[in-house]
Automatic annotation (TrEMBL):
NCBIfam families: DnaD_dom. Belongs to the DnaB/DnaD family. It comes from Peribacillus loiseleuriae. Pfam families: DnaB_2. The lineage of its organism: Bacteria, Bacillati, Bacillota, Bacilli, Bacillales. This is DnaB/C C-terminal domain-containing protein. It comes from the Bacteria. Residues 139-210 form the DnaB/C C-terminal domain. InterPro entries: DnaB/C_C, DnaD, DnaD-like_sf.
Length: 274
């Protein structure tokens, strides 16, 4: 199997066969195990290992693998005693190409064109339903936008944040990370932690917070602040202060004016006291 083609086919298949985030995480864990095993037709792995790799409880693993089997993503058979179940992955990339697996339980035709037409019909139904676009899948967004190939660790992290917040917020955090040119899960998770700490639980909450933040920044920039002209620091003074009238009497311009004023005062004093 080709890892990238298999993952791309998996998300193409999700458009017509939706899965819970737990089932998606379990599928990625099974793909990871089989990849390490060298892509065996059949392989076994303990439920306890899947619990660790997918970040799920044993009960959730059992429910998720049943869902994956019913919808034709995997097949498995249990064994007696403490023996681990035997799994096999459906080659979804071959299914899309035209070779539908015998394990698909939805009774689709083996003709690939029928599957493609069904995909187009379902996709249009999703897009046109209530005039709302289909939700973006965080796992698919991660791989299609240059963050890297999803392993079991990242899959577990994405699933946890989808449950704590929502799929939409996880995708939005990836978009914000992309806009900053920092396509790393560490940066994405830092954004999610910040939102979670601020109590932002919906896309509307985040957008309202970001708008308020921008308005505050704009207000700070509009305040009167000193600036530098050349090497000298110049204080910005309002116009009304520059035109303030002076209450002080006019000072004499030179010594002659001062003597004239003194003589006039002496004359006035003599007239008052002859």
């Amino acid at each position: 199997m080709n890892y990238i083609k298999l993952i791309n086919a998996f998300y193409d298949r999700l458009e017509t066969n939706s899965l819970s985030t737990s089932a998606i995480a379990l599928w990625h864990a099974l793909v990871h195990v089989n990849n390490k095993a060298g892509w065996q037709r059949e392989f076994s792995v303990a439920v306890s290992v899947l619990c660790i790799k997918a970040g799920l409880s044993e009960r959730t693993v059992n429910n998720a693998r049943n869902d994956l089997k019913i919808k034709g993503f995997i097949d498995f058979r249990s064994r007696k005693g403490n023996q681990a179940a035997i799994y096999s992955l459906v080659d979804l990339s071959a299914t899309i190409a035209g070779n539908l697996s015998d394990n698909v339980s939805d009774n689709l035709s083996d003709n690939a064109s029928a599957l493609i037409k069904l995909n187009e019909t379902k996709r249009n139904e999703i897009i046109n339903k209530d005039d709302a676009p289909a939700k973006e899948n965080p796992f698919r967004f991660y791989e299609e936008n240059g963050f890297g190939v999803i392993g079991s660790y990242i899959s577990e992290k994405i699933s946890t944040w989808c449950e704590d917040l929502s799929d939409e917020l996880v995708v939005l955090a990836m978009k914000r990370s992309t806009e900053q040119g920092k396509k790393t899960w560490r940066y994405v998770e830092a954004i999610l932690i910040d939102w979670f700490g601020k109590g932002l639980k919906t896309v509307a909450d985040v957008e309202a917070y970001e708008l308020e933040f921008k308005e505050k920044q704009a207000q700070k920039q509009n305040k009167v602040t000193p600036y530098r002209k050349g090497s000298a620091r110049v204080e910005v003074v309002p116009e009304w202060m520059q035109n303030k009238p002076s209450d002080e009497p006019n000072e004499p311009a030179n010594i002659k004016d001062l003597e004239d004023r003194k003589r006039k005062m002496e004359q006035m004093f003599q007239q008052i006291n002859p």
